Amino acid sequence: MNRRSIMTQEAMKKVIAQNKKNCWHHLTQHSAYDKDGAAPMVVVEGKGMRIKDANGNEFLDAVSGGVWTVNVGYGRESIANAVRDQLVKLCYFAGSAGSVPGAQFAEALLDKMPGMDRVYYSNSGSEANEKCFKIIRQLAHLEGDGKKNKIIYRDRDYHGTTIGALSSTGQFERKAQYGPFAPGFVELTNCCCYRCPFGKKYGECNIECAHALEDLIQAEGPETVGGIILEPITAGGGVIVPVPEYFPIIREICDRHGVLLHIDEVVCGLGRTGKWFGYQHFDVVPDMVTMAKGVASGYAGISCTTTTEAVFDRFKADPSDKMHYFRDISTFGGCTAGPAAALENMAIIIRENLLDNVVKMGDYFSDRLFELKDKYEIIGDVRGKGLFQGLELVKDRTTKEPVDESVAAGVAGHCAAKSRVIIGRTNRSFEKHNNTLAFSPALISSKTEIDEVINALDLAFADQK
Ligand code: PLP
């Protein structure tokens, strides 16, 4: 990293202490705040795919900001300049009005999403998903007696942190102890072939995981089910890629029962898998698509809920009916910094041909992960798409018994401490959630960085033996 921090070592020490004393961090065990606990990391700067912490340690970031976010890499001055220029011109006006970057980004985005026609702005993935739940529920009231309000979600998917989004989340570690949840959310089983919930093998399974939706809708009563939310590729639940038949079957069932198909692209959105969106790998056009993290690569807060014109049109009504419109509001959904950053973020992806890079580097990454699988018995499965990859760790390849949680943590810790490479882990191995290491390096990755990640893993697995 060639930029030097202008803070003195003394000042940095103070920041580390302030951080430990005053902040309450995401997903952090409280031992970190104990007197003798290792202080939570403070990240100071980033360039390309590398970050530096307050102690001056440099790391290769193989998870794009920890949570699949900084897709175009750190230190992009063109995005910073676009945001700065926009903020000086107009920082904000409520989202009931338009803005120049908001209008321009909506058109640019929809151009990449054939079949989608409208963009609704908000601030986070959770919030974008909540908009869809509200759309589904309001339509149930506008078009009927309000009963067609149930929303189906899958048992290993994550859709956000708010109570509505958590109600639609299947992950025990995120969800347990935060109830009671919102009513009307119904769980469908996952589609992980490696641990088929139906005990079947692909090729002989008749894609039961998809047909299970029909059974669930019948059990609930088709007149009560308004929508389904699905990650195109499950992220935190274990990097689960559905088989090609999965989404077309889901689409057909939804169409037959008037159920809106909502795809949550918060992780896959904008290039991570080698296409603009994860669902575009599968033969499906959803009714609603949500996105957040990769929309502006973390340079500004923005999320989008996109819908078809058909969904939008269902809110059209006699103007004398004062309640017949989407009565949702989000203060910062009108911020201009988000779409200004998003426009330049998308321009970078196009200018630098990053989708092609993701396809090429994703194949290379996957090949190298399979090489590791040949070498280490502990790797039960390699799966992913593009620069979104996972390794599931097992005690025994035949029984597929998951490794203890400490093993996955140990591998990640080894990579960070010994090789200065940050990798991710999906949820802990409660119930169906198994220990999967997750990788989502920036879309600018080259073979050099991927080899660095592989070498770090190689060393870590060798030390586990
Ligand atoms: N949906 C998915 C698939 C996610 O992975 C996340 C966050 O990790 C969310 C939604 C929630 O996004 P946010 O944290 O921006 O609310």
Automatic annotation (TrEMBL):
PROSITE patterns xrefs: AA_TRANSFER_CLASS_3
Record GO terms (molecular function): pyridoxal phosphate binding; transaminase activity
Keyword Transferase: yes
Cofactor: pyridoxal 5'-phosphate
InterPro entries in the record: Aminotrans_3, Aminotrans_3_PPA_site, PyrdxlP-dep_Trfase, PyrdxlP-dep_Trfase_major, PyrdxlP-dep_Trfase_small
Keywords: Aminotransferase, Pyridoxal phosphate, Transferase
Transferase among keywords: yes
A GO CC annotation given for this chain: cytosol
Source taxon at top rank: Bacteria
Family to which this protein belongs: Belongs to the class-III pyridoxal-phosphate-dependent aminotransferase family.
The name this protein goes by in its record: Probable aminotransferase
Species per Swiss-Prot/TrEMBL record: Desulfotalea psychrophila (strain LSv54 / DSM 12343)
